[in-house]
Every structure is written in structure tokens, then in C-alpha cells.
Amino acid sequence: MNPFMFLNPVRVYFGEGAAKHGLKAELPQVGSRILLAYGGGSIKRNGVYDEIVSLLKTAGKEIIEFSGITPNPRYSEVQACAKLALEQKVDFMLAVGGGSVIDCVRTAAVQAMLDEDIWEYETVQHKLPRDAIPMGIVLTLGGTGSDMNWLAGVNYEEKHEKVTFAGKHAVFNIIDPAYTVSVPTKQLLTGAFDTLSHYMETYFGKGSFVSDEIMEAIMRNVIRNARTIKNDPKNMDARSELLWDSSLALSGLPGAGKMSDFQCHSIEHWISGYTDANHGRTLAVLHPVVYRYIFSAAPEKFARFATEVMSVDTAGRSPLETALAGIDALELFIRELGLPTNFTELGIDVDDAMLETIADQCRPNPGCCRQLTREDFLTILKTCAGK
User: Fold this and answer.
1) Which of the residues 23, 118, 120, 126 has the least number of beta carbons within 10 Å of its own beta carbon?
2) Tens digit of pLDDT for each residue in 298-315?
3) CATH code for the domain of 153
């Protein structure tokens, strides 16, 4: 195992009624002016907004709203959110939504405390933030794992770049599975694959056998409950399991002692920077293609994934054949969930010039079992595009 320091300071309130119990416990400890941030308004249609606002008002809080945060949150939205927080002198920021809302708020919370542009501060000067407006989370959609870590993905639209910013952990995280009831099944299944992707990206990295065994169990759980949701979308037990799977993924615990891979995520960030493609669905396209490209560099690990996670029968198969059968099983699972396996099915139009440009931006990850080159990235992208 690699050396590590593990700490996750986020207090989690999980289960039915979690918002009532969690906010009652947490709100007396924060200031009076709360920035309430959310996305396109679904929380107003499903009753979540009314419940949260009622709890805030009961606690005597003054509410400043920031709404309309988009999927693949924009850098311009971050700046607008930070500006509002400064102008209104907010004491605390409450993100109600999924990963996009959380990532926007987390980045804005840092930007509001900086005298310079956060992109320049973090990506050019390579500095980590010292301060941020404290924030809390009410999770309404699983998948990204943003609720339990300190990073944020933001689409800098002018630069065609999806940037991973460093921020701060939330003070608390409220997870009520009932808040996901109105989420479309397609969106739930996309989130489930995003969760699975986080575990695979860590699992296929280097080191730590005990972490791998933990992740094998959770990956089986994700697959089982995703299938349950596909056939029974209102199943609350499956929703609960998937939400907790998602939150644990990037909490730091499953990957302790490992050097993670996250090569597919790296490629996805550049694709979505140029196309604004859906994060989880793009990952569904990438994983089988990338794994068929690299599996021969770690056949034993991919064979173990095949048997322990995808339930592949090893009879009559060599490790390489078993490994490949596991990747085939993964692609079948992706199709079973109704997710895309190529760019055409994803619904994006990429020409050769764009593929070349994206390949130029991709960088190899040292945790990957094979160090990919620029030409490797281009081949992977062309395969995804059917070229």
C-alpha cells in the first residue's frame, strides 16, 4: 500500500427525514444569511424547495437565491454565484442538487474569498485555496461523488476546458433517498454508471489489495441496484444503496493506499469541454474502448475484475481471454442500462479536427497501467467515433 492520510470531515445525515434532522442540528451553528443554490427548478416541482425554504425560515435565516445552474456548470455561473455571495455578504452557502450544483457552489465559495481569478490562481500559479465561504449540501441526485470530496469540475466555456478546481469539503451532507423519487430513471442509471466509473478508475490504478476488495463488493452492489432500478424505478432500497455507493466513491476511503487511474475521466473532461456532452454517458462510451486498449498491460487485474465484479466464467479461458470477456460483459451492462457505447449514440458530432485538438490536450495519468501517448488518445477517440 502507498502511504496516505485519511480524513473526511463531512457530517452525513442519511435517510428519510434527513433534511429536517440535519438542518435542525446544523443551522444554529452558521450565520444568518444563507445563499440557497440550485439548478433548473426541479426542486420546486417535487417539493424539495418548499421543505428546505421552510426549514431555513424556521431557523430564522435570511435566504438569498442563486438558481439556474446547468449540467457541466459554466465558469460564468461560478463567477456570478461568487459575485452574488460577495454583494449580499452571505455567511453560508447551501447547495441543493447533484454534482453540477455542488461543483459550482464549491468553486464560487473559494472565488468569493479571492482577490484574483480562481483559474489563474489554481491552474497557472498552482496554488491551493486557503479560505472559502462554508457550505452545506442537500443531495438530490447521486453519481458524481462531489458531496464527499473537496474537488469541483467546471466547464470554462471560453477555453473549451473542463477544469478540476480545488475547494473545501462541505460542513455537512444531507442525503434523503425520497428526494430522488421524481428523478427520471434514465438520469438515475446514468448516475449509477458515473458511480461505477469512479470505482473502476480507482480499482485499475496501482497498489492496495484491501482497497480493491472493498471496491469489488461495492461495484457488485452498484450493478445489482442499477438493474433493480431499471426494472423497478421506485424501489427505495435500491435508490438508498446507490446514493451511498456514490457518496463513498470519492470519500477517500475506497482508494486509500492506491494510485488511481482516472484516465477515462481525464479524456471525458476534454470531450465535454468541446461538446458539452453529458458526463456519465460520455464515460459509458469511453470505458470499454479504453479498457480494450490497455487490458493487455494488466491482464491479471482485468481478469480479476471479470470474475469478481462481472461474474465471468473462467472455464477454458486464459487470463487474457477472461479479461476481455469482462470488458465485453461491462459493455453489455452499459447497453442493458440504455447508455451509449459510441459518440453517435451519445449524440455528439466530432470531426477529425476536433479529435486531433482533444488528443493534443489529453495527458497520461501515472496511475494507469499503460502510459498513454498522444497517438494513443487519438486512436481511442477515433474508435469512440467509429473512425
Assistant:
1) 126
2) 999 999 999 999 999 999
3) 3.40.50.1970
Which of 56-60, 257-261, 345-349 is predicted least confidently?
257-261
How many domains is the chain built from?
2
- Residue-number span of the structural domain to which 45 is assigned: 11-180
My answer on whether 311 and 164 are in the same domain is no
Residues 305 and 326 sit within 8 Å (Cβ to Cβ):
yes
Mean pLDDT for 157-162 is 90
**154 and 271 housed in the same domain:** no
**Of 180, 207, 233, which residue is a domain's last?**
180
CA distances from residue 329 to 17, 198, 240 in whole angstroms, order as listed:
38, 18, 25
Taking residue 78's Cβ as centre, other Cβ atoms within 10 Å add up to 29
Asked, for residue 105, whether it belongs to a domain, the answer is: yes
Picking from 131, 155, 180, the residue at the C-terminal end of a domain is: 180
Average pLDDT estimate for 124-142: 96
Tell me: do 259 and 287 sit in the same domain. Answer: yes
- Please give the average per-residue pLDDT across 284-294, as a whole number: 98
Using one digit for the tens of pLDDT, what is the confidence trace for 171-217? 999 999 999 988 899 999 999 999 999 999 999 998 878 999 999 99
